[in-house]
Structures are given as C-alpha cells and as structure tokens.
Amino acid sequence: MATPERDPDCLFCKIIAGEIPGTRLLETDDVIVIQDINPQAPVHGLAIPKRHIPSAAHLTLADAATLAAVIDAANTVARDKGVADSGYRLVMNIGPDAGQSVAHLHVHILGGRALGWPPG
Ligand code: 5GP
Ligand code: ZN
Can you tell me whether residue 11 is helix, strand or coil? Predict the structure, then answer.
C-alpha cells in the first residue's frame, strides 16, 4: 500500500497543515524546518518532509528525492544559523531504543556547541 500523504493523528502533519503552531525556519514545496519546542543545543531545528513517512526505516530508493530535499533544507538552515563552519549534527531517531517520539520522519539539526560522542 502506498504511504499516505497525511496521517490525521500525526502531530507533524498538523503542524505542516498549520493546525498546530510551529516556528518555521524554512519552507519549500516538499519540506518544512521548524524550531524544536525543547531545544537540546543553541541551534535545534527539525527538517520534516511534508509527506507523511513514519520513519527513515520506511524510506526506499523511490524516496531519494524527498530525502535529498530534507537534507538540503537542513543544510540551508545550518548555514542560515551560522553553524556550517563550526559543525553540526543531523540525526534521525528510529524506533523506541533510539527515542523516536514522533512517528513522522524528521532530521534533527543540532549545533552551536560541541556535541558529545557517542550519543547517550
Ligand atoms: P524524536 O524524539 O522523535 O527524534 O524527536 C521529536 C522532536 O520533536 C523532539 O525533539 C521534541 O522536542 C519535538 N517536538 C515534540 N512536540 C513538538 C511540538 O509540538 N512542536 C515542535 N516544534 N517540536 C516538538
Ligand atoms: Zn505525519
């Protein structure tokens, strides 16, 4: 079955539709980047495809352009926020052990401080 364009119960689908507020850092035809409501670093955005994809585990080669658009938007926000040279981390959490709490694919953009490795 094809991935639905929108899940009516999904928080990020509601933010994309404007039904729940979110601070938009960037918007393109296919992607929004919003400010994370609970930032873990001085720069913490979420790059989100407008099409509902539950997680990166659901991506196939057919989604290559969507994924590239998400990464491109994340990189643009990193440049806009001034962390492109100091460095930043792009993170996709998948499933419970990784701490994924919203089942709509999103790439965290984290920067503005030294980030520990390995992550907790
Ligand atoms: P995950 O834990 O799924 O990798 O990331 C979900 C992220 O969404 C978390 O960093 C959390 O702070 C953020 N978040 C949860 N609810 C909201 C919301 O209503 N608005 C915004 N802007 N971010 C949210
Ligand atoms: Zn969704």
Answer: helix
